[in-house]
Amino acid sequence: MNLLDTDPAVTAVELEHLCDFAVRFSDVQIVSTPVATRLIAVIGGGTVDGPRLRGRFLPGGGDWVTFGADGVARLDVRATIRTDDGEPVLVTSTGRAALPGEAVGRLMAGEVIAAHEMHARSAPLFETGAAGYAWLNSTVAVVVNQLSLEHVNYRVYSVL
């Protein structure tokens, strides 16, 4: 018998809304290569709005997306949040977005692809030396994504 099958801590996963990210891009580069189409989006700024985490994204981070021939976008995000009380929080996130064929074309044409039009999930990790936000260092989070070439919106949930 596998003890994980009977342990209530692992038979159900609970989520709690942590915050929403609204990130805008200052520059987007799209490069087609023999391997994939690569999209590099430079963060121009943005907001973090939630019950325990509020602040803004500092310019200069980025979102490196690799679009495979399989229609899956592989996400790699690195950014810095400055909390409303001035503390820095680093964010790294990886994830996947499965876009139906027409959604890729719409995205490249500048349209917003809503969360219900694709399956896009990512997993941000937080890192900070700020004592008041030390709880973020052990937080595991999952995100439902909305994508565009100008901005992305994330609904962030912490895994309890």
From TrEMBL:
Pfam families the UniProt entry points to: DUF3237 (PF11578)
InterPro entries in the cross-refs: UPF0311 (IPR020915)
Family: Belongs to the UPF0311 family.
Database matches in HAMAP family: UPF0311
UniProt cross-references to PANTHER family, sorted A to Z: UPF0311 PROTEIN BLR7842
Protein name (record): UPF0311 protein HNR30_009282
